[in-house]
DNA sequence: TGACTTGTTGAACCGTGATTCAAATAGGTA
DNA sequence: TACCTATTTGAATCACGGTTCAACAAGTCA
């Protein structure tokens, strides 16, 4: 028998198992047994913790987004220079490659969001949070006279997040000439235009 | 009994039925019976024409993309002025609203493209074709001295298509403040920066 | 130690979807 | 008209996924 665990621990395991299963089989194509297998349990045990599987899937998506966002915040937390911060932030929004689990999970939701309001809200919220993150950086840089913004910070930030999203999809779909490096360069090209800063990492 | 049809006619019907069924139930969550019902046939009849359902789904996606692309080309075909052509093209790449069937179908593929090479290739091909479409417009405008391009035409075009894609997803997910009009305005803001043209429709 | 709680299994059951195929039917054709 | 072939149906079958639940195992606590 699989090791017995506390309710809280097991739920965390299951959320993680669901995340992995969804990446393999799709957010909507995933089956209870696949999640159970991924967690090393039987389907009954999964149902014991999540009588309604949809709740588990939503929690897994929520956790995936939270993790994605936190990782980004962490990567830029120690950086003071707005230019370097902007460069790092752009990079942190892109998948590391076609197999990047965090972004794969987010991409799974794009289609489902059209049919499922909860997923739509999750994605929308994540988008807005990322926009805020960029706005802070841009306005700090502008206040310091480092950036000369071509538009208001919200417009530029929305564009930056949109570009990350779209190139994320391209990378996941294995575009032959747009990988993480090329995508970062394309977004930086825009950022230069929008901030009037050359944005060269020292 | 449903009306008897020629092989070619029936296949067209089925492709359309599959398209509708996938929008309702997801590209991967769709079932044979749902497609059959949408086509007004029984599951057996569907299998008679498409012994492997995956072939039908791929053809349906392919047809959806073809239709989407052709509609865009058609909308801009009569326009001579590069600026107006650019504005119209941008608008034609966005869904008309959250229910827009063409874009919904494309969004369905985003996640699946990570797992399915065929879908990845389809999306990548569409992306590249749209980039070419923009390049033609930009270079015509530049040659006429109307546009002053801030980057090479490929970079700008990729950015434009990426923005369309990303805002398409936002609109489908029902973002509270980004609808078709706002999205078009955001993309135009970038296009102004990149072309040096004010891009005001007369 | 023994009762009690909680987590897990495994088997049984049920409904559903895919698949197969003989029979029925519509259209075309000689 | 009668035949021929392509298309469609409907029922039977099979496989599989979700759901339930009695039994069991592993902790917990008095």
TrEMBL record, chains A, B:
Organismal lineage: Bacteria, Bacillati, Actinomycetota, Actinomycetes, Streptosporangiales
> Does Zinc appear among the keywords?
no
InterPro entries on file: Homeodomain-like_sf (IPR009057), HTH-type_TetR-like_transc_reg (IPR050109), HTH_TetR (IPR001647), Tet_transcr_reg_TetR-rel_C_sf (IPR036271)
The HTH tetR-type domain covers: 8-68
- Return the annotated DNA-binding positions: 31-50
Keywords linked to the UniProt accession: DNA-binding, Transcription, Transcription regulation
The yes or no answer to whether the keyword DNA-binding is present is: yes
Name recorded for this polypeptide: Helix-turn-helix domain-containing protein
A Pfam family of this chain: TetR_N
């Amino acid at each position: 028998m699989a090791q017995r665990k506390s309710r809280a621990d097991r739920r965390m395991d299951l959320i993680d198992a669901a995340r992995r299963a969804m990446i393999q089989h799709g957010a909507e194509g995933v089956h209870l047994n696949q999640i159970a297998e991924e967690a090393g349990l039987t389907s009954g045990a999964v149902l014991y913790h999540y009588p309604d599987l949809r709740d588990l899937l939503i929690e897994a998506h929520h956790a995936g987004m939270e993790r994605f966002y936190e990782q980004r915040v962490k990567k830029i937390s120690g950086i003071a220079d707005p230019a370097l911060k902007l460069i790092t932030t752009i990079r942190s929004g892109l998948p590391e490659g076609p197999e990047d689990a965090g972004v794969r999970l987010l991409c799974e939701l794009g289609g489902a969001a059209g049919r499922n309001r909860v997923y739509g809200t999750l994605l929308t919220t994540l988008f807005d949070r990322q926009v805020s993150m960029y706005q802070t950086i841009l306005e700090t840089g502008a206040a310091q006279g480092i950036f000369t913004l071509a538009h208001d910070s919200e417009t530029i930030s929305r564009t930056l997040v949109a570009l990350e999203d779209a190139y994320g999809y391209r990378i996941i779909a294995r575009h032959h000439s747009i990988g993480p490096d090329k995508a970062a360069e394309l977004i930086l090209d825009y950022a230069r235009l929008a901030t009037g800063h050359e944005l060269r990492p020292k």
